[in-house]
Amino acid sequence: MHRLLLPMLALALGACDQVDKIKDTVDSVTNPTVIIGLDLGVEPPDSELIDLDQTPFGEGASAKVFLARADSLSNLEDNLVSGATVTLISASNGGGFPLQDQGDGTYTGKGSDGLSYDAEDVTIKAEDDDGVHSLSVGAPQAPDASIASTHGAGQPMSIDLSDQDYDGALVVVLDLDGGITFSNQPETVTELYDFAYGDGGDLLQVEIPGAAFEQPGVYAIGVAGTRNSAPEDMTDINTALSTLIAAKFRFYPVEVN
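Given the sequence above, the corresponding structure tokens read:
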């Protein structure tokens, strides 16, 4: 009798565990709280030909976080939430850096305000009337990209990070005046989601169009390898819609003629 009861009890306990796991999965993808963020660093250029001071990358570090209450990608833009307390937590930021509420559902920080970027675990924590929500990612170092020092004017260029341990590639091209002639960096909440979860293309290979090198001169090409947060690193948020992307740019001088 006891021999029969023990296997039945084990079977019942296993079934309970499966039910709990299914419930947790359903809860995580139906949770209305969505956090989507981008944490960026910039490695100081080692070439005198590159001056980032008057560009958006002169800050050295930046963070932008969107907080929303939504049940699908299609209504993220219309349901951004302000009024929360959002903090970027990492060792290099003294344990916590408060992001500024911009009043439109975005929360930002930058290097000139004291924000730092390092290759370490980074957590975004949001506190609002519904509780405490968070997600984390292991922020990577800047990549070693293979970029020739000279390039033909009007010719396209391919950047390939597929042989390195990243989830995607960010690329920006600056002209001699610091103007951006090409960038695939996502800016809106929908663009960030699409970049993290893919749109069917290879996110590790970027084709820079020839129009980015229209005029002869020295250009700065910034390349960053991205890492994305995983569902197991998310707490009390929608794991199907949320993501935290971290990346660090390295800039390369290229003479175009």
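Residues 31-256 form one domain. Try to locate this feature in the token string yourself.
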